[in-house]
Structure formats: C-alpha cells, structure tokens
Amino acid sequence: MQENTQEIQKKEVESPAGVERTKDQKVYMPAVDIIERTDEIVVIADMAGCDENSVDITLEKNLLTIYGKVLLEFDEGLKPALFEYGTGDYQRVFTLSNEVDREKIQAKVKNGVLTIILPKSAAAKTKKIAVISE
Amino acid sequence: MLLSDFERIFEPLWGMTGSRWRVPQRRTEFPPFNVWVSDDRAVITTELPGLNPQDIDVSVIGKIVTLKGCRNSEELKNNDTYHRRERWYGSFNKSIELPFNIESNKVSANFGRGILTVTLPRAEAEKPKKIEIKSE
Q: Closest approach of chain A CAs to the CA of B132, in angstroms?
C-alpha cells in the first residue's frame, strides 16, 4: 500500500497547445474506477471538494463530460506553510458506446466521490451469442 | 514518518513563492497535506474522498499530528470487471511535526465533501507575547 500511494499525484487536464483557460486556476483529472457489471457500467470518480450542487454531468452525442467545481474556503490570516497538493476544478471526458441507455443514467455524490450508473440498453443485454461445437 | 530535515529546511521557501497553486514536484507520503499557519494556530487540510468521518483517526502528541485511515476498494460481484482502476485504496498513517506545541484538548477536525480540515491551536504557554517597552 505504502509503495502504491507514494506516487499518487493529482494529474492536470491537458489542453490543446496554445489554448488557455480564462480562469487562472488549475483543472485536474479525477482518478476513476470504471466497473462493468452484468447490466450496467459504473463510473466512480474521486472529486474531493465537490458536492451534488457543484458537479455537472453532460452527455452530448456520445461524449460524457464530468465537470466538478471546487469552492475553496480560505481562512484569512493564515499563511501557507506547506503545499503537497494543488486545488482546482475537475474535468474528465469519456466516450460512451451505443450500448448505454441514455435515459436512465443516474449520478450521486457522497463525501467527494461521484458515482455514475450507466445502465446498458436492452439491446446490448441480449446480445450474447451461443457458440456451438460441431 | 516525519518530514525529513531537508523538507523542513526548505519549507519556508515554498511558503514564500506567493502562488497559492504552486505545488513542489517531489515525492510525498500519502495523503498529501496542505498546511497553513498563523501566530496562534495551524490548519492542515487533506483530500480523503470516499471516507466517512469514523474511518479517520486524528491524534496529537506535543508538536506531532498523526492521521490514520483506510479506504476499501469497491466490491466486485461474479461477473464484474474493471475497465479502469485508478483510485487509491488501503490504509495510511502519516505524521507531521509543527513548529510549536499543540493545545491538544482544543484540536478540532472537520470532514466535509471529502476534505479533512484539522485546526490545531498553539499551546497557550507558547503564544507570542508582546512586550511593552517603557521609556524612562
């Protein structure tokens, strides 16, 4: 465990060369687990600092975009002494295959973790083809 | 493990860079801490998404603060498979030494939206005192 976690660093989102954001703030890629279950695909993203009101999920064509806004409460009168992690918004984009039932996507946020449930469409679920030996 | 002497020597320099977003590129023990200080207290923040407050243990001895905790990986059923697995899991145990003794019974810890904030007041006896200079 110790070995694995020592290398954990937040990754910044790469923007195309020459393109800048208007806000002078970093945007990070949330670490995700994506699990495929029998009838759904689950996306779990670590987005510390976000709650249900600050996460936006949009689905345009087959692009699923996750954007999480992080509001920093900064206590005046304190001086920074040590910075081991950066803070900023989160963004990540995934392409979805046609097998997702777009109408039934669900999302929730708890303790800074976003969970998106992408149910598989009925067509995708019944696509299993039996192979017969001769 | 405590911060190494090297890190302690260079800590003040990082504090002086002026940019709130600058993060030194170096290996840090998990979880990464951000620390703010003032004359009467220090505040430590760390990102621990997915944990519950009861999973986190904060303890203080003298100048040293220790955070312990654990996050389990997702439970997989028979047919479940990972497409991606990037999130950390397991247990951690990290200590940091502050530049002053801590008033241990006044320490407060708050956990919200996956961020832990620990406020550590400076021991009363060690607070800086202003000394009046009298003219004769």
A: 24
**Tens of pLDDT along B12-37?**
444 444 444 444 445 668 899 999 99
B91 in contact with chain A, both atoms CB, cutoff 8 A: yes
Residue in the structure block whose two tokens are 């203080």:
B60
**Sequence letter at residue B121:** P
Print the domain residue range for B94: 5-17+29-74+83-125
Give the span between the Cα atoms of A28 and A12, in whole angstroms.
4
Give dist(CA B71, CA B90) in Å, integer.
5
Among candidates A82, A86, A113 on the partner chain, residue whose Cβ is nearest the Cβ of B21: A86
Residue B23 lies in a domain: no
Task: Respond yes or no on whether ipTM tops 0.90.
Answer: no
| Per-residue pLDDT reduced to its tens digit, A20-33 | 777 778 899 999 99
Return the residue matching tokens 């708890």. Answer: A110
CATH number at residue B118: 2.60.40.790
